[in-house]
Structures
1.
Amino acid sequence: AQSVSQHNHHVILSEAASLELGCNYSYGGTVNLFWYVQYPGQHLQLLLKYFSGDPLVKGIKGFEAEFIKSKFSFNLRKPSVQWSDTAEYFCAVTRSGNTGKLIFGQGTTLQVKP
Amino acid sequence: NAGVTQTPKFQVLKTGQSMTLQCAQDMNHEYMSWYRQDPGMGLRLIHYSVGAGITDQGEVPNGYNVSRSTTEDFPLRLLSAAPSQTSVYFCASSSGSYNSPLHFGNGTRLTVT
């Protein structure tokens, strides 16, 4: 069965610090990968997605992620975080062509101190 | 644009009661799914549907039933609520086509006492 592991459960950064959140998945076939963000009290919103092509994908609000197939990883990065990035971040994976059945990681809570 | 609409937003049940969480989407999406979100466990897939009349189990289906009689609606039924079902429930939909992400509803916060 597919699974997704997010290494950091709770990250605290100061504004302007760089961010990298780890995500590893277990599935040997072709996958689609996603990062979602959940701001306090809100529903999940898509940050970025990888389906094929350039393994470095750029999303909204300055976020990017790199798909490294050999490492089964899809880490999320942002060069300089802002207080408004305080949220919970979820990595998710699905088999290619089955975008309705996402498997999510446990989530990482990011707290950015002003 | 309504997107994915969930009702109610909040619900308190007593153990053993039944209820239905409603989910409707107006995007003509084929895929619909239900997740529950619990602290430290991320989102776990309960049931999903790839089209009207077709449903399947996800990671944590026990205690929940679903049906998909129309493309628009995908209700989630709790037949006999248990405290372990206290959670936040999210409905999501997708066109299912290549490059199509999930669209989430605003969630239903359920407490079972």
2.
Amino acid sequence: GQQLNQSPQSMFIQEGEDVSMNCTSSSIFNTWLWYKQDPGEGPVLLIALYKAGELTSNGRLTAQFGITRKDSFLNISASIPSDVGIYFCAGRRSNDYKLSFGAGTTVTVRA
Amino acid sequence: DVKVTQSSRYLVKRTGEKVFLECVQDMDHENMFWYRQDPGLGLRLIYFSYDVKMKEKGDIPEGYSVSREKKERFSLILESASTNQTSMYLCASSLGPAGPSYEQYFGPGTRLTVT
């Protein structure tokens, strides 16, 4: 399946900072999902987006479905140590059971 | 809450052995998936199943087969394990064909080492 372009690949952030990451594709997607994976565990779904322009929050996390339907953004506000992990974007095209995944953004928080 | 469980968290097998990885979901989901995850390569789809006894190849099916005899269980089989199959294997499930039904829920993963 098509891989999504996710950036940045990694980031070191100061506790309390706001951070952003994004995911882009050359294809249109109908669904965007954001996952977080802790070391040695499976990915956990954070936010799901279904409509272009949609902005959805889950606690300190906010994600947006880009209006072109070819991108999505995830913001973490006031980062804390437990935000450490790998964040993945995933997208689904029309009439497809499958998801395409980004390569992940590794977040490390400096206390 | 959706629960996806995998039979082993860690597994060590020898080259040439037949390996079975089991996945069970308890939410009556239609779709089930097997991925492998390798550093720098992200998540790659091996096989998926959208119904009992139905399966479709993903992006990297070579060297693997699958079985889905019951709706809640999806097995990944390595017919003859090789060292290049050392990886983290993740199982996922999703409800079915519409809107939120495509959200995939993952198990904790099986770290397989082939020596």
